[in-house]
Automatic annotation (TrEMBL):
It comes from the Bacteria. This is DUF5955 family protein.
Length: 104
C-alpha cells in the first residue's frame, strides 16, 4: 500500500514506494525518448525536464512543486508525440502519487 503524502520512511528503512515508482517512470520515459528517432521542436526541453525529474527522483523526499513544474514542461514538450503518450501517462501517475502541490 502506498504511503500518504505526509508519511515518511524511517531512517534505515526501505525507499518510499512513491519515489521508486517515480524513478521507474522517469527512466522509462527517458529511454522511450532516446529511442524515438523522429525529431520534434521541443525535444531538448523534454530532455532537460526529464533530467531535472531524474535528479528530483534521486532524493528520498522530492520537491513536489518542482516535480509538478517539470511534469508540465515534459507534457508540453512531448504531449503531441503519440508514441510517447503511454510513458507520459505513467510519469503523470507517478507524480500524482505525491498528492497535490502545497501552496505557498
Amino acid at each position: 500500500m502506498l504511503r500518504g503524502v505526509d508519511q515518511r520512511c524511517e531512517p534505515g528503512s526501505q525507499v518510499d514506494p512513491r519515489v521508486t515508482e517515480l524513478r521507474s517512470a522517469v527512466a522509462r520515459l527517458r529511454r522511450q525518448l532516446a529511442a524515438h528517432r523522429a525529431e520534434f521542436r521541443d525535444r531538448s526541453i523534454a530532455e532537460e525536464a526529464l533530467a531535472t525529474l531524474a535528479g528530483l527522483a534521486a532524493a528520498d523526499r522530492p520537491d513536489i512543486p518542482m516535480l509538478r513544474r517539470s511534469l508540465l514542461l515534459v507534457a508540453g514538450a512531448i504531449g503531441s508525440v503519440s508514441a510517447l503518450g503511454d510513458g507520459l501517462r505513467q510519469l503523470r501517475e507517478a507524480v500524482d502519487l505525491f498528492g497535490v502541490s502545497p501552496r505557498a
